[in-house]
Specification:
about 260 residues, mainly alpha, 2 domains, 11 helices
Length: about 260
């Protein structure tokens, strides 16, 4: 199971994932760490971009609004997307079947408490770096601060790197055992990954929701449905006007309220 090829791929993805993970908060923040990008990128490296697109899109919808602002430490969606895609790509044939994608997504979501705990530890450790750098004797303060900053980046990298080295081999074992489960379980996992985008969209709307937006969203959906039935034109021709009309309605009511 763990031949030299698999071990090389696990280490490679751990290195790539560690570098991508720096983009979350530590360096760059070019949005490469978002699941919708990190998933397909991982899939492309491993030869199954389809798995990366599906997994990345699903996890993006679920965690798109969970941002590390202030003291809030969200689940590491980057590790989840990269791990799930890597497991789906390494665990079987390409493209990976929906049942495997669903199981890999479920495994990656289960790592959320571990990634949040590790992230909290590293943040607490890095929060003390500046104090130690300024308080220490000897070198110029700027040099010490630069060294402390670099040390913080290294710690963030090794946090992700070591988590991948734990999650990926464990996930591959779990995926092998999943293959022996009854067909009904596989069908359930395929259904699970199909339903997840709906759940993700609902979560996103719930977080963005206001009383006005809910009302106008419902009106827009009704307009699109009725227009498609009566005029027999493609639904997408009505989506944009419905969105614009809803946005204008929300702004009008907010202006009246103010």
């Amino acid at each position: 199971m763990f031949d030299s090829h698999i071990i090389f791929q696990v280490v490679l993805i751990s290195l790539i994932g560690g570098i991508i993970g720096l983009d979350r908060t530590a360096a760059g923040q070019f949005m490469i760490s978002q699941p919708i990008v990190a998933g397909p990128l991982t899939g492309w490296v491993l030869g199954d971009a389809h798995a990366g697109f599906v997994i990345g899109a699903v996890l993006e919808l679920i965690w798109v609004l969970d941002m590390p602002i202030g003291t809030f430490v969200p689940a590491d969606a980057t590790i989840a997307a990269v791990s799930a895609t890597a497991l789906a790509s390494l665990g079987g044939r390409a493209p990976a079947p929906l049942s495997v994608l669903g199981f890999c997504v479920l495994l990656s979501i289960g790592t959320a408490p571990l990634t949040m705990f590790a992230d909290s530890l590293i943040r607490k450790r890095n929060a003390r770096l500046a104090v130690f750098a300024v308080a220490g004797p000897g070198e110029d303060a700027i040099t010490k601060l630069s060294r402390a900053h670099l040390s913080g980046l290294v710690m963030f990298f090794f946090k992700s790197f070591l988590l991948y080295l734990i999650i990926l081999p464990t996930g591959l074992v779990a995926l092998r055992l999943f293959g022996f489960l009854p067909e009904k379980i596989h069908s359930a996992m395929a259904l699970f990954v199909k339903v997840l985008p709906v759940l993700g969209a609902a979560l996103m709307l719930r977080k963005l929701s206001t009383a006005y937006l809910d009302r106008f969203l419902l009106i827009g959906l009704v307009i699109v449905a009725l227009s498609e039935v009566s005029v027999k034109a493609p639904a997408y021709l009505y989506v944009l006007p419905a969105i614009v009309a809803g946005w204008i309605g929300v702004k009008f009511i907010e202006k009246r309220a103010s």
